[in-house]
Specification:
This protein is mostly helical. 73% of the residues lie in helices and 4% in strands.
Length: 336
């Protein structure tokens, strides 16, 4: 089409737009027409109708079990042939739980300090691994990433039995190594009877299993940082430590927040690694955490109401952490 025709068409469109009647806004107080109301109703309800199947499945799998645990926590539940019988007791189980000295002296400190140590070490080790992977070439990065992910893919049961074997009394590899250095007597030293050494081994187990997720996630963030930022920092005389805290951390701060809060949620509800270690199933009360304590009360002592109340307490702690997680994410989204 010749340029002259384009100019004429454009001028014609401008004239038509200038002379066309302007749609005036609806006067205040005038109700929308039925057709407009149907369109507005469709726009409002259509997303919820599309989400409805997923919401029904989530409610059945997540919400209903939570409701059942809440109901069970205010009952004395007795298992009988053909079904159980529950007797309403009000908040007696919660009163007994909160007045139990073992909760404040042993169980809650074990749960909180163990989770804090695991999160700090997991994020630190994962970040160091990510920085190392960033410096490698493509081939070695793939090989090392695959080796790291093998630790994450290992089932928690398998990993726990490996760590138990390493520190087992007598023939455990770490026990033999410490014995050869003259630190302990491997035949008489049991690492799993003392609270501190028990949770030190559990922390190694959980950190070994959890740091690959942090490493791969942080590596994905590191690869998005422009190299020009580091080059500018080097020109300004910043060393590696200053470049990490002034460029890397602020740039991928949302990723650090996500991995930190997710690790906190996961480490608060660790069960398998504690339960499978010697003494962790309840025979050693000094090493109980909230998850194992709830299981022990419900299924070892057949006090289902007390076990459910402990589970509700753990759920409330996790909900509090989740609310902080969601608020932090929305705050970061608003700042971006």
């Amino acid at each position: 089409m010749p340029p002259e025709s384009l100019i004429e068409d454009s001028a014609h469109d401008d004239v038509a737009a200038a002379t066309s009647p302007v749609k005036s806004p609806r006067p205040r107080g005038q109700r929308p027409s039925p057709t407009l109301r149907r369109k507005q109703l469709g726009r409002t309800t259509r997303p919820w109708l599309l989400l409805l199947p997923s919401l029904v499945v989530l409610a059945g799998l997540l919400l209903w079990p939570l409701v059942k645990v809440g109901i069970l926590s205010v009952q004395d539940y007795e298992v009988k042939f053909g079904g159980g019988v529950g007797t309403y007791t009000g908040f007696d189980h919660y009163k007994d739980l909160l007045s139990d000295g073992a909760l404040w002296r042993t169980v809650l400190p074990n749960t909180v300090f163990f989770a804090v140590a695991c999160v700090a070490l997991t994020v630190a080790l994962g970040t160091l691994a990510a920085l190392l992977l960033q410096r490698l070439g493509t081939t070695w990065r793939v090989i090392c990433s695959t080796a790291i992910m093998a630790a994450w893919a290992m089932p928690a049961v398998t990993g726990t039995y490996v760590w138990v074997w390493l520190f087992s009394a007598g023939d455990g590899m770490m026990s033999q190594l410490a014995g050869s250095l003259g630190l302990i007597d491997p035949e008489t030293t049991n690492w799993f009877t003392e609270r501190l050494s028990f949770y030190a081994i559990a922390t190694l187990n959980v950190v070994h299993h959890g740091f690959p997720f942090v490493a791969i996630t942080v590596l994905a963030g590191l690869l998005t940082i422009p190299k020009e930022l580091y080059e500018a920092g080097m020109i300004d005389g910043a060393n590696a430590w200053q470049r990490f805290w002034k460029i890397t951390v602020p740039t991928i701060k949302p990723i650090f927040l996500v991995v930190t809060i997710l690790s906190t949620i996961w480490d608060f509800k660790v069960f398998t690694q504690i339960y499978l270690m010697p003494g962790g199933a309840g025979s050693n009360e000094e090493v109980l955490n909230l998850g194992v304590w709830s299981y022990q009360q419900a299924f070892a002592l057949n006090d289902y109401g007390a076990g459910a109340a402990t589970a509700v307490l753990l759920t409330l702690l996790l909900l509090l952490i989740t609310i902080v997680y969601i608020r932090t994410l929305f705050k970061e989204s608003d700042e971006l």
